[in-house]
Write a structure and sequence with these properties.
This protein is an all-beta fold. The chain has one helix and 27 strands. It has one domain: 5 Propeller (Tachylectin-2, Chain A). This is Glycosidase.
Length: 371
């Protein structure tokens, strides 16, 4: 599906690494591997705010016969070195350490979060708020913070982030009273979970969220089932947004009729419409190392979000090579759009996505699409 308003609003060259939290720590050159997967919310002044994942990478991760990663420790950023013979470096974003009985990964970059203020329509950058950047501050974030999602519930903004470390791959919560200044609250999910999205509103007095636990083992559905075994979008509720209980009914599951949802996860925080909770999510069709990421949509029952009111098998958004043509020299992934934010724009929704794990894309999607 194509839309009249669809553009990249932030690319790697827009980031000033002299103002990065890592500046002056490493003694080696870094660059912006990607500025992408932005959370999106509307500020009290009417402008929009993207919380951008900046993946700051080593320009030369391999030297002296070793591959290196960046790590935070006690307020400093350090380099670790791994022998090349112990690592698989096929993916430029990471390397796999070989020889163990399970998957062990290290990153060639460290991610921090940059608030970027946009015009009310989301199409122009107003300010980069480097002074309000969010960076690691504890051991459970020693490899960075990834893929923020922002929800406004009542008069408070809530932001979930994925905090990465050898200790755990946890979901951490931040809160704000103005959408721009953020306070760390706590770890809220301890298991590996890449996509926790808090609903923008309460259901029966409780906070609700979509979750997506990770795993390498899934039990089969019966032969002929409409569902395919694999990662799915689950649900949880909470009295306070800190303590979460999984919901007993399944949420959105991968459908056996299409390989496009062989792997799936949440995209934008669910927002309430006349039909129910609108949620944009991603499905991944297997291809090469990473796969093809597309954006899909569903509307969930306003009282029981385990029930799907409407959905489409056809993708809402796909990667757009025309948008990334000016930054073709920086492309390292293809076929990836990862939608992470949504805001009301009147007769349309302003939708924010990461394009190619490289840049931030804003698309205006008419509300009539979901009627």
């Amino acid at each position: 599906m194509t839309f009249a308003v669809d553009k990249l609003v932030l690319v790697p060259d827009d980031i000033d690494l002299s103002r990065s939290p890592l500046a002056g720590h490493l003694g080696v050159e870094t660059y912006v591997l990607g500025a992408f997967n932005p959370a999106l919310t509307r500020l009290p002044n009417g402008n929009l705010l993207m919380m951008v994942r900046v993946a700051e990478a080593l320009r030369q991760p391999i030297f002296d016969g070793h591959v290196h990663n960046i790590r935070w420790s006690d307020g400093r950023y350090l380099l670790d070195a791994w022998p090349l013979e112990a690592a698989n470096t096929a993916d430029p974003r990471k390397f796999m350490l070989q020889g163990g009985g399970w998957k062990v990964m290290a990153l060639t970059s460290l991610a921090w979060l940059l608030p970027v203020e946009l015009s009310p329509d989301g199409l122009e950058v107003i300010a980069h708020h480097y002074d309000k950047a969010i960076a690691p501050h504890a051991d459970f974030q020693m490899y960075g913070l990834e893929d923020a999602r922002i929800s406004k519930v009542g008069d408070r903004w809530l932001m979930t982030t994925c905090s990465v470390s050898p200790e755990r791959h946890s979901t951490t919560l931040y809160s704000s009273i103005n959408g721009l200044d953020w306070t760390f609250e706590d770890i809220v999910l301890d298991h590996q979970n890449k996509d926790m999205l808090i609903f923008e509103g309460l259901i029966d007095g409780h906070y609700w969220a979509q979750t997506r636990p990770l795993g390498d083992l899934y039990f089969a559905y019966p032969p002929g089932s409409e569902w395919r075994a694999g990662p799915s979008i689950n649900l949880a509720s909470s009295p306070d947004a800190l303590h979460w209980k999984p919901y007993r009914e399944p949420g959105i599951r991968p459908h056996s009729a299409t390989v496009a949802t062989a792997r799936m996860g949440g995209g934008t925080p669910p927002i309430l419409t006349d039909r129910g909770w609108l949620t944009l999510w991603h499905g991944v069709e297997p291809k090469e190392i990473v796969g093809i990421y597309r954006t899909y949509w569903s509307i969930l029952d306003r009282d029981d979000p385990s029930k799907t009111v409407a959905t489409e098998h056809a993708p809402l958004l796909e990667a757009n090579p025309e948008l990334t043509r000016p930054i073709e020299h920086q492309m390292y992934l293809r076929d990836v759009v990862f939608t992470t934010g949504i805001a009301d724009g009147g007769d349309h929704y302003v939708v924010a996505s990461g394009e190619g794990d490289l840049a931030c894309r804003i698309t205006h999607i008419p509300k009539s699409v979901f009627v």
